[in-house]
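Workshop exercise sheet. Pairs work together: one partner reads the sequence aloud, the other fills in the structure field after running the prediction. Swap roles for the next sheet.
Pair: D.N. / O.F.
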Amino acid sequence: MLKRILDVFVVLVAFFVFLPVMLIVSIKVAKHLGKPVLFKQNRPGLNGEVFEMIKFRTMKDKYDQSGVLLPDSERLTPFGLKLRSSSLDELPGLWNVLKGDMSLVGPRPLLVEYLPLYSSEQAKRHNVRPGITGWAQVNGRNAISWEEKFKLDVWYVQNQSLWLDIKILFLTAYKIFKKENIEHSVAEELARFKGSHK
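Structure field:
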């Protein structure tokens, strides 16, 4: 209950504070990437139930001669990568938090296609609402392996508390400001989970 109260309070304040930023980002996304400015995709949430997550768009719609969508690495622009590295693309996710699909802090909601690839231990990351930021994000982000991320996610699930959430929120703000663990290649940004080796 306290976690949900913290989520709603912080989101309402954040909407007020970041509204001008969101308007500016919307204009820049429309200019550099076109419309729509929002990216929507189904992601697994609490107990693996699917919800529609929203973010600012970071990739162009590019197709090959056969009309097939090009790989992510060929559609992500320098502007889009900069938007991701700043984490500003996550701001629309505050709406998901307000709706209750997500929390401010929790394991990152990944692709639905990953669900059958998790081990029983890794699947515990879905025992809580996914978050805009999480324990894995402040302990390596894309600089660590999938297995390390999932271990950190499960540790969070087993040790979550209001104070831990507050700590993660402050660490997230600090790391974004200091630009720690966000200088990564396109390959690292777009690498997909293919299952853990037994």
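Discussion prompt: Residues 2-33 form the longest helix (32 residues). What would you look at next?
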